[in-house]
Amino acid sequence: xxxxxxxxxxxxxxxxxxxxxxxxxxxxxxxxxxxxxxxxxxxxxxxxxxxxxxxxxxxxxxxxxxxxxxxxxxxxxxxxxxxxxxxxxxxxxxxxxxxxxxxxxxxxxxxxxxxxxxxxxxxxxxxxxxxxxxxxxxxxxxxxxxxxxxxxxxxxxxxxxxxxxxxxxxxxxxxxxxxxxxxxxxxxxxxxxxxxxxxxxxxxxxxxxxxxxxxxxxxxxxxxxxxxxxxxxxxxxxxxxxxxxxxxxxxxxxxxxxxxxxxxxxxxxxxxxxxxxxxxxxxxxxxxxxxxxxxxxxxxxxxxxxxxxxxxxxxxxxxxxxxxxxxxxxxxxxxxxxxxxxxxxxxxxxxxxxxxxxxxxxxxxxxxxxxxxxxxxxxxxxxxxxxxxxxxxxxxxxxxxxxxxxxxxxxxxxxxxxxxxxxx
Length: 424
Prior knowledge:
Low-confidence stretches: 401-417, 420-424
Number of domains: 1
Distance between the termini: 35 Å
Mean pLDDT: 84
């Protein structure tokens, strides 16, 4: 058994491909569902339109946490296969939905599928590459997932003009979920032994923690892990708002399906491609500069969507938002992995992803309420301010981390808890 990207490139590449199918399942909805709600189901309230995202975010957050716990207990592969099975009915429910709550129910299943499948592909890659290349591994993982989100979003919008808003999610979704299930069931190998072997090689004797203790440490007790978790939540909070409100904002200003697909697709495409560079650079430079700088850049990009009044400015804001998110997304995952030992790392990643993806639900509720009570620009300005403050808070809570040499050697300094008070 050997850790490293080169030594395990076949399984790593397979997991990258599978995560692209996972991302594609979400992407086909990003440019279609808000318009489907408004034009086929007649929903006028922005909060009602974003109801599908509230359920998706809550369920995905819960299943992220469960995925980490189950992956530590039962292994990675079983959880991955279970996720694909949960996602299998999603495209059929959207195709035959007579009422909007059928679509909401489909997104509950989609949230469960995303929580299990995406979490496990992250954890399995961390298992395979070891401590020296975590940032690069997370960059490649998120590149595959969010590039697929972008391509799927653009493709769904382009096809919707010819085949209708409802048929496209069914056709693409069925192909994606079937392929992902077959690859996971017959070709993925279990990676939990790699985590056990890493702990042995490092001489790390940290015992496996109680899950409630892990949840408390990652959520609030350890100030560094708290800083990472709150940044993840706010990052997905603004992503949820963009997912739900940006297509409606663009359509209200005369953009056609193709233009909406291009603007909404550019953001996750830049986000996806950029993570290859930012993840690897954070291995060498450090995590904190990318986290703080990325959150601040996201805030300015959100303002750009409502200040800009042309397609070119909307596209520029989308690209800037993608760059900011690329700086943050893989770096937060790598930072969580740096600061937790192999014995309970999967559970810690699951708890972080719980808070991060709960941001979808919080963002949908907050953005929908602000848009209904005031206006869509008010929602964008308010959440841009919140994103800026989150970046500043991350900079305050994330002290300079141990060197990569200390991380690679598994030194106790890396995993020493830094609590808000003397004991936690």
